[in-house]
Amino acid sequence: MTDEPRRELAEFLRTRRTRLRPEDVGLEPGPRRRVAGLRREELALLAGVSSDYYQRMEQGRDVRPSEQVLDALARALNFSTEECRHLHSLAAAARTPARAPRRYEPEEVPDTTQRLLRTMPSPALVVGRYLDVLAWSPLAGALLGEFTRLPVTERNLLSLLLHPEADQTCPERAATVAELTAMLRAQVAADPGHPRAAELVGELAVRSDEFATLWARHDVAETTRGRMRVNHPLVGELNLDWDAYPLPGAPGPMLIVYTAVEGGPDAERLQLLAGLLNAR
């Protein structure tokens, strides 16, 4: 097992154990409890593994849990489907021998997708594995504003929402940042050696205490739809639903499309913004 993935696995288990209370899993808390969440021996008992074995996992020692042990731990910790998948990904990465750094090709948007974006009447973005904004439709550009003029290396959704002034345009910014951080964590676990992942996480952790705190929670999510509220300087508040669609080919970039309920005030404001864009 390699050190970095092994440490990630240990930290993920520890953060999940300490968030569970004994009463959440049918245990009596008892008096004089000095630890947050479950004790290691309590979790080991619930999962049907020895306390020593589980302790070595949480210490990042060289243990190789089977699929059955991982599933038992996931059940004992009340994992969601996403958390269970993340646990298995971390364990698989920890079992993989260290390899020489490989060459990664930059994420690119096919010409056909670029043509599609230019014809789309809705705001739409192409977002890379690590939330880099790779391309956008004209109406999405009107929503993003000055962001579209940033250098390519700075066009990242998390970086955008961690900006000090982002609360003014995104009233639910904090919740969105937490969701995006959990999505980033899941992507990093799938390929922990990717240089863009290491660069981005390091940069954001140094720049933002908020991100560093969220990253340390080890939350994971594979969100494919949601809702966004934006205050636009020209048309006012917009409440938009979004859906993410994988692009054809190798796993990576996603097409995110924003829509509003037909006939509602948000759809009218989007049409107004589109009209202002066409009038330029």
UniProtKB/TrEMBL annotation:
InterPro entries reported in the protein's UniProt record: Cro/C1-type_HTH, Lambda_DNA-bd_dom_sf, MLTR_LBD
Origin: domain of life: Bacteria
Taxonomy of the source species: Bacteria, Bacillati, Actinomycetota, Actinomycetes, Kitasatosporales
PROSITE patterns listed in its UniProt record: HTH_CROC1
SUPFAM superfamilies linked to this entry: lambda repressor-like DNA-binding domains
Entry protein name: Helix-turn-helix transcriptional regulator
Native organism: Streptomyces asoensis
Residues forming coiled coils: none
Domain HTH cro/C1-type stretches: 33-84
Any GO molecular function: DNA binding
